[in-house]
Specification:
It holds the Pfam family S-Me-THD_N. InterPro entries: S-Me-THD-like_C, S-Me-THD_C_sf, S-Me-THD_N, S-Me-THD_N_sf. This protein is α+β, with helices and mostly antiparallel strands. It has helices spanning 9-22, 30-42, 75-83, 95-107, 123-134, 155-158, 184-197, 211-217, 222-239, 243-250, 351-357, 371-377; strands at residues 4-5, 48-49, 60-68, 111-115, 141-142, 166-169, 175-178, 201-210, 219-220, 254-269, 272-281, 289-295, 297-303, 306-310, 314-319, 324-325, 336-342. The strands form 4 sheets. It has an 8-stranded antiparallel beta sheet. A 5-stranded mixed beta sheet has the order 4-3-8-6-7. Strands 1-2 form a two-stranded antiparallel ribbon. The chain starts with a strand and ends in a 6-residue tail after the last helix.
Length: 383
């Protein structure tokens, strides 16, 4: 794959559309992602990605993210932030880049490449803009091939990597270093508590490895894929075609449901945004109900109360009135939507992958069934 740089508003819109689609309801706010990219471009810096094979294989590589809940802060959280002096005007806007520098100091190395943590409209853009700001190449790859809620859901964890040492710096410059942790799950818990203390998010740098090791566990060429799928969706939207059908075709997936959002609701808890959407079917799905459970990202669905498509397969909701893929905080009662689902990346259809991102990992007592098996058993309800 060739080196790619985002050059104009159309590139940005297409890229954010693809990222939001692969973000499966999570991955952060597209508006924030747009602002991050536009800020770097207006500063004269290039925002883009490099073929992993064209980056120095001996360079130290790090995963960066903005970790926390995708939900909006509550009035009580806002009031307490004010009392603590954690106001917007006091924010340190390059705090995630500072987490990279902090990790360099702790590890005693020079970091020469960045891998995005996932595909998502904010978190992928965080990695790209940190790379642009620091002058470090970002690999055309990520550590999930979708958006995921937990550090331990990432492909490095499937390979037994330790995320530590890791550095965190929040938007007010508060910084912490985790030199050791009992397990990836414990490291996740520590980071989430830091995010809660920061009223939603903190910048994280971890998974320090050489580029050659990173490319062997990452899902490759996913940023180019997001841009390609986003361009197809944007073109369909402008031409008045069915964006959900185009998205499904472009990403080798299926439209698994259409209808109107009947009920939705979420809450910030333990550093995540938890909730459910209930969608009443229309057209071919008239009289049927789809329920989607999310923990930041859409993870489990039920069709008429029977387990349907589940993680690690991808579930994305698209507003059919405008063809825009939705993050979970954007879903509202009364919206007309189409639900598109995709196969999980091969790394997640292994025993380790299912243990880390299958239904059982999230406390559900039913087994994962591949989407193609489920849809065939349903007799083609994905038309």
């Amino acid at each position: 794959m060739a080196t790619t740089f985002l050059k104009d508003a159309e590139d940005i819109e297409a890229f954010l559309t693809g990222l939001t689609f692969f973000g499966t309801g999570g991955g952060g706010d597209p508006g924030r992602g747009r602002k991050l990219i536009e800020t770097e471009l207006s500063s004269g810096r290039k925002v883009g990605w490099y073929d992993p094979d064209e980056v120095d294989q001996d360079a130290w590589c790090v995963r960066v993210s903005r970790t926390g809940s995708t939900g909006a802060p509550t009035p009580a959280m806002i009031e307490l932030k004010e009392k603590l002096g954690m106001r917007e005007e006091n924010q340190f806007h390059y705090h995630i880049a500072e987490a990279v520098r902090e990790l360099e100091t702790v590890a005693g190395v020079k970091i020469g490449a960045i891998v995005p943590p996932e595909l998502g409209a904010s978190n992928t853009c965080v990695a790209l803009t940190v790379g642009a700001y620091l002058g470090i190449p970002v690999l055309d790859a990520d550590y999930a091939g979708r958006a995921i809620p937990e550090l331990c859901n990432t492909t490095p964890c499937l390979s037994g990597w330790k995320i530590w040492p890791l550095a965190t710096v929040d938007a007010w410059g508060n910084r912490c270093v985790v030199k050791e942790a009992l397990s990836p799950q414990v490291a996740e818990r520590i980071v989430r508590h830091l995010a809660v203390a920061s009223f939603g998010h903190t910048g994280v740098a971890g998974f320090l490895k050489k580029v050659r090791d990173a490319r062997n566990v990452a899902v490759l060429y996913t940023l180019s894929e997001a841009l390609q799928v986003g361009r197809a969706m944007l073109e369909a939207r402008l031409e008045g075609r069915d964006v959900a059908e185009v998205a499904a075709a472009s990403a080798s997936g299926w439209v698994i449901f259409r209808g109107e959002v009947f009920k939705t609701g979420g809450e910030n808890r333990d550093g995540f945004f938890w909730g459910e959407h209930v969608i009443k079917g229309e057209g071919s799905w008239q009289g049927r109900t789809l329920r989607i459970w999310y923990k930041n990202e859409n993870l489990i669905s039920w069709l008429d109360d029977i387990p349907y498509i589940t993680a690690p397969d991808l579930i994305s909701v698209i507003d059919t009135s405008n063809g825009i893929p939705l993050t979970n905080p954007q879903v509202a009662a009364g919206q007309k939507v189409a639900v598109v689902a995709l196969r999980a990346r091969p790394q997640y259809r292994t025993p380790d992958g299912l243990a880390n991102l299958g239904p059982g990992h999230f406390g559900f007592d039913f087994e994962y069934r591949p989407i193609e098996e489920v849809l065939n058993a349903k007799g083609g309800c994905h038309q």
